[in-house]
Amino acid sequence: MSFKTKIKSLVVASTLCFIAAPSFSTIVVFETSQGDIEVNLFDTTTPKTVANFLTYVNDSSYNTTVIHRSIPNFVVQGGGFTFNGIGLVDIADNGTIDNEPLYSNVAGTIAMAKISGNPDSASNQWFFNTVDNSTNLDSSNGGFTVFGQVVSGMETLEAIQALTHCGETALADFTIAQCSDGSVIAFDNLVSITNIDISDATVDTASVLSPVFVETEIEPQPDVEPETDSGSSSGGGIGLLALFASVGLLIRRKYK
Asked: What whole-number distance in Å separates Cα of residue 188 and Cα of residue 146?
């Protein structure tokens, strides 16, 4: 084979590999029991975080999970648990990833939750900032990695936070009185994620957005952090296990 033929073969092979290589999806749609949330991911600027998130999306790990934490005027958090009719059950995680704190935790962004005091401990749990949390979350615990921005569906997040809250868990068709009177909590009462659908895999659709960059001079403020919840105190904060009704719904509450 001549030198030119070898070069041509290498170019063709490289091109085919490039075409066959999986590209990061940049737009996903969270289909929840309260409505849809469309999110544009920052695939080229927070690649490790987006790749990690899409691993769970592609293997359907987030399907039938629940929003286990909602704090009005703060965050809506999920990605870690399913409900087995008795309590919350952890979904398997794929290990932790490096922190990529590039963008600010302003309203309408999605970021990774992690263990208190460990900047590189994010795994499968994420949260939506429903207000501007930049003053606290951009600097505490190494900064919380924002990896996408809501492009439609903020009304869904508002609907979740408008529901009855038993502790930090939002419940549909439930009253405050039922939080403590022994009423049975069913899966339909929880805010669930039916599916996360990849709607646009075009390279770098986030280029049309204008995310806010972190201001490094921000000082951390004493406030609640969206920590990764776990079944034990080893999660890095104070784990408060509350028993809701006779079914024993496990609610994790984490404080800084």
From this structure: 30
Phi/psi at 20 (5° precision): -80, -20
Whether 121 maps to a domain, the answer reads: yes
- Strand partners for 37: 30
pLDDT tens, 187-214? Answer: 999 999 999 999 998 888 888 888 999 9
CATH number at residue 51: 2.40.100.10
Nearest to 164 by CA among 189, 130, 129, 194: 189
- The b/e string for 136-159 (b: 16+ C-beta within 10 A; e otherwise) is bbbbbbebbbbbbbbbebeebbeb
* Three-state DSSP class for residue 154: helix
* Contacts (Cβ under 8 Å, ≥6 apart) of 134: 104, 105, 106, 212, 214, 215, 218
The verdict on residue 75 lying in a domain is: yes
Which amino acid, one-letter code, is at 20? Answer: A
* Domain count along the chain: 1
Q: What is the pLDDT of residue 80?
A: 98
Collapsed DSSP state (helix, strand, coil) of residue 56 = helix
In sign, the C-alpha dihedral spanning 93, 99, 161, 39 is negative
Residue 244 domain boundaries: 23-208+217-253
Q: Which residue has the tokens 């359907």?
A: 60
CB 97 within 8 A of CB 48: yes
User: Which of 40, 71, 247 has its CA nearest to residue 147?
Assistant: 40
Q: What is the pLDDT of residues 18-50, one digit of tens each?
A: 333 345 678 999 999 999 999 999 999 999 999
Residue 16 falls inside a structural domain: no
